[in-house]
Amino acid sequence: KQEVTQIPAALSVPEGENLVLNCSFTDSAIYNLQWFRQDPGKGLTSLLLIQSSQREQTSGRLNASLDKSSGRSTLYIAASQPGDSATYLCAVRPVETSGSRLTFGEGTQLTVNP
Amino acid sequence: GAGVSQSPSNKVTEKGKDVELRCDPISGHTALYWYRQSLGQGLEFLIYFQGNSAPDKSGLPSDRFSAERTGGSVSTLTIQRTQQEDSAVYLCASSLTGLAAYEQYFGPGTRLTVT
Q: Over the stretch A10-32, which tens digit does the pLDDT of each residue have?
């Protein structure tokens, strides 16, 4: 059964720092991996989607990488801002369930201090 | 265009009552998903619809939970005889098709509290 782990569980940084969030998954048989952002009391906002054949995706100050064979992904946030404060969730789409669902990690709660 | 919408945004109900949660997917999206987010359990998959049929409902936790989708659009998740452990945020997502390559877009969720 696919399991997704995110480290660290919480992170607090000063404004302007570059930071890396980590995601690992136990079964490399995935269709893709998606990073989401969740603000308190809100739904999920999709940030980046990386297909299994891709190595990375970029959007603005965000860069996500995927190493499928080792079961790892990182989300790099450049020049962090207080508005980046949120919980970041990583999710994979496992082949074992025919891609019908996302399997989520527990999330990393990020606080960027002004 | 409009995103995924869910109603109600909050629902408080007494133990033993039935509740219905509604999801309106993005127009034209044929695939629809329900997830549940609870403390200590993270985000869990419940059920997947392709059109009006549910090829995967393996995540429904008990036979008190059911869902339907009509007209290939709106979906309703029904919980019968609610229990306190059903308290959670119920999230709905949709995607253009059920093919794995397509991104899922989430609604704001319904926060259910069972007292």
A: 999 999 999 999 999 999 999 99
